[in-house]
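Model: You mentioned two targets. I'll fold them one after the other.
Researcher: Yes, keep them separate.
Model: Target one:
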Amino acid sequence: HNLGKIGSRVVTPYRGDGMNIRHLKMMGDLGQIAHVPFHIRDQASVDKAVEKSSVVVNCIGNTFETRNFTFQQTYLDTTKALVEACQKAGVDRIINISSVNAALDSE
């Protein structure tokens, strides 16, 4: 909500039909919140989601493996795809938010 208040353009990549994110359009002025369909396994859609961005915040995560995404795919492969897209697009900063609270000294 605060990003909209300061005039930032916010791109929200999503999977599915978009009904779960429609309420986010109300968080900014007309055209300020842009929803972009994407799938992390489709590099072209990842590239499109980060193009023209100066900062990318990665919030992709899960707390359990699914039949579609293992931890390796969720945390390593997706991060690699995002970093590659950001490098191509010239993104200045990538912020990664983890949902597993991993530590360097964990076993």
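Model: Target two:
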Amino acid sequence: MKCILRARIGGVDIPNRKRVETALTSIYGIGQATASSILHETGVENKRTYELDEDELSKIRAEVDKYTIEVKFF
């Protein structure tokens, strides 16, 4: 199994050591309820981000793309 070194979703590098539901809240515009909904819709288990495989990451990216989020450029 290949570990994800850095997951980039919605233009944001999400934390690797946190559970996916919590890590998704680091994306501006996604709160706890939305993150939970994303996991439910994709059928992805709430595990550590580095434990995700590419297929699960792709499902999450596709679901996040359905939401309107803001990307901050510095």
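Researcher: Noted. Anything on target two?
Model: The mean pLDDT is 87.
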